[in-house]
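hey
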């Protein structure tokens, strides 16, 4: 098929595009600058620019919508809304107009699997708006999903994929691996209360390739390799990286209050906080998910999570810690 890929230069996109090319597809990449995507036709455009979308979609049969902004900074709220909500609506309107045979949307497990209690979420769960309402990234992705589901009801074959935290090599912008960097730099002093799910970007990308022909339109598909409490996550990460896991433990209310105070202290002095308060809040929740639907419908088969952690540590050390980033 001839495919348009948005976000082709991002962490997931740069892993997915070579797999699509290897599978024999012809790839056109929507880029906002003069970026080149090896093996693909790069066309300049923006999901907020309808005319550029119309040109980019001309002659294509399928669409991968991966573009977006991964940020935990409340200052980026408006930009994330413009990209994830307005931009996705623009793109799906034009995709429907072009009569595409398949659309694959990259969402996040955080639109489903975030809980203040220890439990694993499934696709049948409702949106955890009460929990994620203060975190604009997840909130904007929820609105994006709602738009996609509405278009699916109108006949556009949109399949929504919900990977958990993407880890592995190749995250050149550290959009997903920043917490590994913080751990290696000793910037996570207190053990979070909750738990994490993560998935190797290479395994997630394979499921995205399969979603071109598999998966249920108008439905969500969760993907995670493992559900670990943070105690276990940092213990394993520490053994791989030969570093101590966070040693301090504090009650959640005190931990969150201290994080907000330290963030304000840093910003009042014109500095970025070592650990944003929103990250500390997220760490008090459980991000556990059930991936059985993706295993059944997409053939999702995650690798050993220890391999993923080892590859991530190696990549971050070689490309960021070694450079003093």
């Amino acid at each position: 098929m001839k495919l348009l890929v948005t976000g082709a230069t991002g962490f997931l996109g740069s892993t997915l595009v070579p797999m699509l090319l290897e599978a024999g597809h012809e790839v056109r990449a929507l880029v906002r600058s003069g970026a080149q995507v090896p093996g693909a036709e790069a066309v300049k455009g923006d999901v907020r620019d309808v005319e550029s979308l119309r040109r980019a979609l001309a002659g294509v049969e399928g669409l991968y919508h991966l573009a977006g902004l991964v940020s935990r900074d409340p200052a980026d709220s408006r930009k994330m809304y413009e990209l994830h909500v307005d931009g996705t609506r623009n793109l799906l309107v034009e995709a429907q107009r072009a009569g595409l045979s398949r659309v694959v949307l990259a969402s996040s497990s955080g639109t489903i699997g975030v809980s203040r209690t220890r439990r694993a979420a499934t696709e049948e769960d409702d949106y955890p708006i009460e929990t994620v309402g203060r975190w604009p990234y997840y909130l904007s992705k929820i609105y994006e999903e709602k738009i996609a589901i509405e278009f699916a009801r109108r006949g556009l074959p949109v399949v929504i994929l919900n990977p958990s935290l993407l880890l592995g090599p190749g995250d050149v912008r550290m959009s997903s691996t920043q917490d590994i960097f913080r751990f290696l730099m000793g910037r996570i002093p207190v053990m979070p209360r909750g738990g994490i799910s993560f998935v190797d970007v290479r395994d997630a990308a394979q499921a995205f390739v399969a979603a071109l022909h598999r998966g249920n339109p108008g439905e969500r598909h969760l993907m995670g390799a493992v559900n670990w409490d943070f105690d276990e996550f940092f213990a394993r990460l520490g053994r791989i990286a030969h570093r101590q896991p966070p040693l301090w433990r504090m009650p959640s209310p005190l931990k969150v209050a201290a994080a907000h105070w330290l963030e304000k202290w840093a910003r009042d002095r014109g500095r970025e906080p070592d650990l944003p308060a929103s990250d500390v809040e997220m760490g008090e929740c459980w991000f556990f998910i059930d991936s059985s639907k993706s295993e059944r419908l997409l053939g999702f088969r995650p690798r050993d999570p220890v391999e993923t952690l080892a590859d991530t540590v190696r990549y971050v050390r070689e490309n960021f810690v070694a450079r003093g980033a």
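Residues 50 and 90 are 6 Å apart (CA to CA). The beta strands are 2-6, 26-31, 41-44, 62-65, 102-106, 158-163, 165-167, 195-200, 220-223, 226-229.
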